[in-house]
Amino acid sequence: MSLVDQIQVIDADSHLHEPPDLWTARMSARKWGESSIPHVVRDDRSGNDVWVMGGLPGWPSGGGAQAGWKEWFPAHPPRFEDADRAASDPTERLRWMDEHGIYAQLLYSNVALFRSAELSNSSSMNEELLLECLRVYNDFQTEWAAAAPGRFIPLTQIPFWNLEASVAEVLRCAENGHRGVVMSQEPAAYGAPPLIDPHWDRLWAVAQELGLPVNFHILTGSSAGGDGSADLPPEDDALLVASTVGFIAGNLRTLSHLMVAGVCDRFPRLNFVTVESGIGWIPFFLESMDWQWQNNAATRGRELLPSELFKRQCYGCFWFEEGAARAAIDLVGADNFMFETDFPHPTSLSPGEATIAQSPRAHIEKFADLPEAHLRQILHGNAARIYHL
Predict the structure, then answer these.
(1) Are 62 and 48 in contact (CB under 8 A)?
(2) Coil, helix or strand at residue 114
(3) Burial of 340 by CB count in 10 Å (0-12 exposed, 13-18 middle, 19+ buried)?
(4) Cβ–Cβ contacts within 10 Å for residue 16, how many?
(5) pLDDT tens readout for residues 163-194
(6) I want to staple 232 with a disulfide (CB 3.0 to 4.6 A). Which of 4, 141, 219, 239 is the partner?
(7) Contact present, 315 and 338 (Cβ < 8 Å)
(8) The pLDDT of residue 322
(9) Which residues, listed in sequence order, are joined to residue 42 by a DSSP beta bridge?
(10) What integer is the mean pLDDT of 321-347?
């Protein structure tokens, strides 16, 4: 009997691929203006259908849904309709999950996640329109998750550029069954206060009181992700490898700031999750943080080391790693790590013609020699505990 037949695996990072009419079908063109509402148009130059958000065309409607696609990344389905239906249809998603040994999935967005920061700075979208777009997306996710309660876990996308609206949206969505908060890893890049600023304390307090983890997904900070990708020639697709690996830098920086600046100290029951960033780097990160901490006059004498703060309230998620994940589990323990598939992203655990990825079922089986208690924590227990599943 395989591991996925013994343990109800919770996927800590999957993505809900937005249909082209998500906003146009739910928002009044008379009130907002037809061209202002996020919509999809045909780009004759590229041959792709692309999203237009805040007057900014670019994100392909089939982008971010390369699971099972016939061509190697960075190729992607040219249209929403060409993508695997499991990326957007709840019935097909359940079929995919059952086939690959996944019991439940935490749901992140695609275009709504990776374009929300840019939208906050768009001069062509007023704040009321921005807020309405996020409310509509969150309601869409609530409806989508209702197709399989307990198996689809909605998370709240917040308008981080407006604190009052963010708190209100967290409260509203919590009543609708959302189990976590999705926060920009670098709000200061868009004119909001940095995460260590007391400005955010009310949001942290509400999330802590409601038991909602704060989730930092990669690529939700500055457009360069803090990885230097802005310096890479855009015509060289091979360099995407370097920039993709560098995306974790943003979350590394975010976690270190939250630990050092006292946010974890002030909110000891609030959980922070670094998403789609792997875990192999975490042992070095914690050992380095402790070393610098103990050699700094400003932090000597404080009660807990960064590694102790991490173990108390921080979590990482992994998917393709094997050796690095084993090392992290051996050095840090099993209580702070969760498994993810990243479905339906280009390098997710999604078998197909143009990928080396195995099924999640097969990848999980590689860890069968680990202690059963460790496996149950990583594959189910940690996510079930912090998201109250």
Answers:
(1) yes
(2) helix
(3) buried
(4) 26
(5) 999 999 999 999 999 999 999 999 998 889 99
(6) 239
(7) yes
(8) 98
(9) 49
(10) 97
Q: Token pair 């280009």 is at which residue?
A: 346
**What are the strands of the beta sheet with 48-53, ordered from one edge?**
39-43, 48-53, 56-60
**Count, residues in the chain:** 389
| One-letter amino acid of 148 | A
With a cut of 70, say whether residue 116 has pLDDT above it. Answer: no
CATH number listed for the domain at residues 3-21+85-386 = 3.20.20.140
Give the global pTM: 0.94
**In this predicted structure, which of 62-66, 143-147, 188-192 has the lowest mean pLDDT?**
188-192
Instruction: Please name the residues in contact with 77: beta carbons below 8 A apart, sequence gap of 6 or more.
Output: 60, 62, 65, 66, 69, 83
Any idea what DSSP says for residue 380? I
- Return the domain boundaries, the chain: 3-21+85-386
